[in-house]
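Lecture notes, continued. The same structure-token format from the folding unit now serves as the input rather than the output. Read the line below as a description of shape only.
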């Protein structure tokens, strides 16, 4: 019974395999005989591609560089005479005016020196009067030989010495007056003053290395950015070749992006570029100045400056999606040429402008560049060119896009 049972099971499996094979063969035969669906991948119609027509246009080229802000004017307040701080006469963080008294140094010693110099000057001026009278009398007497020539010379010398003493006394008095005035430490510039490094009762010395406070003029701000020397050379070459045109004698405009990504509302001007290349970084420093009436900009902020490089009157822009690279790394595009056939075209690109490439060579006005349907645009094949983004071209491109989202 066991042998018979095994025989029957083996025979049943063989029949099942034969039936499955016959069914698969039937499916293959019916599939091969089915005509292709209209619009399918094997359709024999001319494929459509989306194109844009290259047209020269006026483009203002800019470059975005990172940098830091710095105050338009900055002054460190230091004492010019030594002494004890009696009073601090300003509020930290407030705005001060040029000439405003910030600190009062104890003036007693300098007041005494001034009084002493004033008294010494009065003494020398008193000695000058008899010396001048004596010299005048001897000048008349020597003419009639009433006094000797030697006596007259001595009187004249005494007069000049008295006059010199008076001048020295005046200089000493002026020095004492200046030192007395220096006991009032004043603001050298107008601006916002920072924190004070000393308090009342502190001892300060003349021209000490540590500043008492720092004043910064924030009405305008400098923005120092760096640009590579290679980029600077490229810009000069483009200007020399005529690809770009400068704005003439007018200073280049600049715009600013703040740390949070927002745009600074007021435009600035490029002031100058450094004449020396930094050997460690290979870059050049550029300085722009921006008005800061509301004091939004503060010293030391990280910003990005957008500087105008120049203007290209006949720039040809091509979307980046239509530009590919060959194995050698050269840029190329597919264009619809004569007889509506696809032609590869080598181009030379300079830089990006938004999401486009700026083309310097390889394209001319009127060329139709393929942006959509590149998978069907084989060199030498005949295609139907439709405007990029038109409804006629959306159907073949819509399915892959939907599939890509999934």
């Amino acid at each position: 019974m066991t042998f018979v049972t095994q025989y029957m099971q083996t025979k049943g499996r063989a029949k099942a395999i034969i039936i499955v094979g016959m069914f698969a063969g039937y499916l293959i035969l019916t599939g091969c005989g089915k005509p292709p669906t209209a619009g399918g991948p094997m359709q024999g119609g001319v494929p459509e591609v989306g194109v844009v027509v290259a047209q020269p246009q006026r483009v203002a080229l800019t470059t975005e560089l990172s940098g830091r802000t710095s105050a338009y004017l900055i002054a460190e307040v230091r004492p010019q005479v030594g002494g004890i701080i009696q009073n601090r006469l300003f509020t930290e963080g407030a705005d001060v005016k040029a000439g405003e008294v910030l600190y009062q140094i104890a003036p007693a010693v300098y007041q005494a020196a001034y009084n002493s110099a004033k008294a010494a000057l009065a003494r020398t001026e008193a000695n000058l009067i008899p010396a001048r009278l004596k010299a005048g009398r001897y000048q008349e007497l020597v003419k009639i030989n009433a006094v000797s020539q030697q006596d007259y010379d001595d009187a004249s010398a005494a007069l000049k010495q008295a006059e010199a003493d008076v001048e020295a006394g005046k200089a000493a008095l002026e020095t004492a007056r200046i030192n007395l005035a220096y006991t009032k430490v004043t603001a050298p510039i107008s601006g916002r003053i920072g924190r004070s490094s000393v308090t009342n009762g502190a001892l300060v010395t003349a021209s000490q290395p540590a500043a008492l406070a720092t004043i910064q003029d924030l009405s305008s701000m400098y923005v120092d950015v760096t640009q590579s020397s290679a980029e600077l050379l490229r810009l000069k070459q483009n200007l020399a070749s005529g690809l770009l045109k400068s704005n003439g004698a007018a200073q280049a405009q600049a715009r600013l992006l703040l740390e949070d990504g927002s745009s600074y509302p007021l435009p600035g001007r490029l002031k100058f570029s450094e004449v020396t290349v930094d050997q460690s970084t290979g870059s050049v420093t550029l300085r722009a100045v921006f008005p800061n009436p509301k004091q939004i900009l503060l010293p030391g902020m990280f910003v990005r400056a957008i500087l105008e490089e120049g203007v290209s009157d006949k720039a040809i822009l091509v979307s980046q999606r239509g530009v590919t690279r060959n194995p050698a790394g050269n840029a190329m595009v597919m264009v619809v040429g004569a007889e509506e056939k696809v032609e590869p075209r080598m181009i030379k690109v300079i830089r990006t402008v938004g999401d486009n490439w700026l083309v310097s060579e390889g394209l001319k006005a009127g060329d139709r560049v393929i942006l959509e349907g590149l998978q069907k645009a084989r060199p030498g094949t005949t295609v139907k060119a439709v405007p990029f983004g038109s409804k006629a071209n959306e159907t073949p491109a819509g399915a892959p896009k939907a599939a890509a989202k999934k």
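Point for the exam: The CA atoms of residues 131 and 159 lie 5 Å apart.
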